Amino acid sequence: MASAYAKVLITLAVLLASPVCLSSTDRPEPQADSKVLQDFPFDDGSTLDLRQHYYTLGTPRRGDDGRVENAVLIMHGTTGSGDGFLSEHFAGVLFGEGQLLDASRYYIILPDAIGHGLSSKPSDGLRARFPKYTYDDMVRAQYRLLTEHLDVDHLRLVTGTSMGGMMSWVWGYTYPQFMDALLPLASLPVEIAGRNRMTRKMIIDAVTDDPAWKGGDYEEQPPGLKEAMYGLLFMVSSPLQYQLQAPTRESAETMMDTLVERYRSRIDANDLIYAFDASRFYNGVHINRVMPGYIAQFGLNPYPAVTAAWKAVTLTDDRAKASNTIGRVAFAMTGPDTRSTQVYINLGDNARLDEEGFAPFGEVVAGMDVVERLYPLYGNNAGGGMRHGRQGPLEQGGAHYVFTHYPLLDYIVNANVVGE
Q1: Which of 253, 275, 297 is the last residue of a domain?
Q2: C-alpha closest to that of 158 among 147, 148, 143, 145
Q3: DSSP per-residue string spanning 106-143
Q4: Is 312 exposed, middle or buried (0-12, 13-18, 19+ CB in 10 A)?
Q5: What is the bridge-based pairing of β-strands 71-75 and 107-111?
């Protein structure tokens, strides 16, 4: 992924090359507003008149070519909002006169991401019926805000922290010509996994496993929200700073209770679980190869740059421990150690695939009747698998190509990793 736009990833100091004067705090007053993005399409297939709230500092300036040349987009982290960057800890050392992002020189845009701040979110009324948004949805909404409402056709810099850093990477592969540089902070261009995903799942499960959550239709915040705050507390903490702030057992417990209550009082349970579950690969992925009695295959992301980034990431082969019988799930592959994001579901007894090294790793435990009704009439034409050499257009054209040429294909609305 990084190679596609490494040329625009340079340090902030070199990019902006303005003198730093940390003592100055003079800066324009921030302006706040909201725009409605009509019929915004989400990756899960739903649409919504989406409210996109934002803050700005400074004034856009156009160059000789007519493009905006001084716009800077800064994106916040999970459960945060754009106004978090207006605090003295951030704005006080970056946006003042003579500082690195001097708002008298740059047009600073601080959006509230979908599900956050004053932008549309589950707690507005839809609750668990709110679209299952992703980082891709967030970025596309910001792009529409900039181009349709703020008349910004180019960005000098895209940056953000944590989730905002992840969205910076998404900006890079979604709109690579729209900005001069990317500066993702506190993030890496890899799948949300490891301890990061484990902590997120702890937070989500603490809410959704609580009977008082009621599938999202609670009248009062469920007690599980407090349990979720424990995971959030460790996710955002610094061990050294917490040790300095709470050096005794009593002070540590008091600090914990105070922080848990502070976070809990500011966060809605549905908003929380949506925000922490916004990073997913398989949402919107088409079931591009359906052959009755054989297999249903999928795994090419709707966004070509995402597919390209993951194509070279492969898994070492496993020894087959189960047979390719109906309902079993296995990775597609082109040879030894080539398994990547593409998987298939067996629609028939395909024991012959066992001998070829296809090792099932899962099984459909509910909904096999749905799998058997997946649209099959395009056959191999809509993407015949790596061995048949027909996937180039799908890899390069993504969802747009599929919707244009194979509009009847089924696709995954929402994919989540869950435990037993």
Answers
A1: 275
A2: 143
A3: SEEEEEPPTTSTTS--GGGTTGGGS----HHHHHHHHH
A4: exposed
A5: parallel
Kindly report, residue by residue over 341-386, the tens digit of the pLDDT.
Answer: 999 999 999 999 999 999 999 999 999 999 999 999 998 888 877 6
Number of domains in the chain: 3
CATH code where residue 138 lies: 3.40.50.1820
The contacts found for 214-223 with CB under 8 angstroms, 24 or more apart, are 215/128, 216/122, 216/127, 216/128, 216/129, 216/270, 217/127, 217/128, 218/269, 221/264, 221/268, 221/269, 222/269
Sequence-ordered list of residues with C-beta below 8 angstroms from that of 302, at least 6 positions apart, any chain: 43, 136, 284, 285, 286, 398, 399
Q: Please tell me whether residues 45 and 111 are part of one structural domain.
A: yes
- With 0-12 CB in 10 A as exposed, 13-18 as middle and 19+ as buried, what is 159? buried
Contact assessment for residue 107 and residue 60, using Cβ atoms and an 8 Å cutoff: yes
How far, in Å, CA of 393 to CA of 384, rounded? Answer: 11
> Tokens 């034409």, residue?
381
- Bridge partners, residue 184, by sequence: 160
The kind and range of the H/E element at 158 are: strand 157-161
Amino acid identity of 58? G
Taking a C-beta distance cutoff of 8 angstroms, is the pair 185, 157 a contact?
Answer: no
Joined together, the tokens standing for residue 178 give 């729209």
**Cβ pair 197, 417 in contact under 8 A:** yes
Residue 353, classified by CB atoms within 10 Å of its CB into exposed (0-12), middle (13-18) or buried (19+), is buried
Residue pLDDT, tens place only, 4-48:
333 333 333 333 333 333 334 577 899 999 999 999 999 888 899
Domain shared by 326 and 178, yes or no: no
